[in-house]
Amino acid sequence: MPVTFTRFAETIHCKEDKRVVSVTVKLLLGDCTGTVYFTDIQAQEGDRLTGYTINTETMLQKFREGGVIVPARFYNGVVRSGETVILFNLGSTSTGLDCHIYPIQNMAAGSIQLSQGAGAHRVKFKEVASPGDTFSLLASTRQCLKNGNPTDKEGFFQYTASGDSKHVVKLEDRKSARLLFEFQEMQEGSERP
Predict the structure, then answer these.
(1) Residue 76 phi, psi dihedral angles, 5° rounding
(2) Which secondary structure element, helix H or strand E, spans residue 24, and what is its range?
(3) What is the three-class DSSP state of 18?
(4) Beta bridge mates, 133
(5) How far apart are CA 33 and CA 24, in angstroms?
(6) What is the residue extent of each domain of the chain?
(7) Are the beta carbons of 25 and 41 closer than 8 angstroms?
(8) Is the distance from CB of 49 to CB of 157 less than 8 angstroms?
């Protein structure tokens, strides 16, 4: 039986006038059976998010072709019930993915879900959906929005892997939504602000 790993990520906001002396992480489990492996923890500081790549020895810069920065990529479509969407990321590394979902019919709370590949890195929007709503999960700014206002989610911000990147979209059965995925392809390097 294969071991399934789930990656959890959160941002810790500290008061700027205080320094962090230590961090304590406690693994709490309840009402479950089986074996749990707690393998890694990564903490980093600064105003540049580098967590989309496992190796933090190098920073990322916007993908270039012929020395010119490639503009952000946009992919759109319509999904009914559920579908696997393939995005083509020509950059040399993974990058954050901004997802916009526009429901065409009413949907129950928690019925809009996104995940990577075979279902990893899952996220669920906790709000009910109505036609005319816009749900935005923005890895670029670490925001989850409904109609431009902060809203709750359960799960993770999304990213697109380098090359062919599979994204599973699940909606309430027989309901539809328009999609817009947006990302800036990246490459290894360093970039000054």
Answers:
(1) -135, 165
(2) none
(3) coil
(4) none
(5) 25
(6) 60-188
(7) yes
(8) no
Classify residue 110 as left (phi > 0), alpha (psi -120 to 50) or beta.
left
Residue type for position 151 = T
Q: Is the pTM of this model over 0.85?
A: no
β-partners of residue 124 are: 113, 154
Please check whether the domain covering 60-188 is classified as CATH 2.60.120.860: yes
Walking along the chain (193 residues) 10 residues at a time, the average pLDDT comes out as 62 67 78 76 54 52 90 94 92 91 96 88 93 95 94 91 90 96 85 46
Q: 79-103 burial string, b = 16+ CB within 10 Å, else e?
A: beeeeebebebebbbbbbbbbbbbb
Structure token digits, residue 40:
């890694």
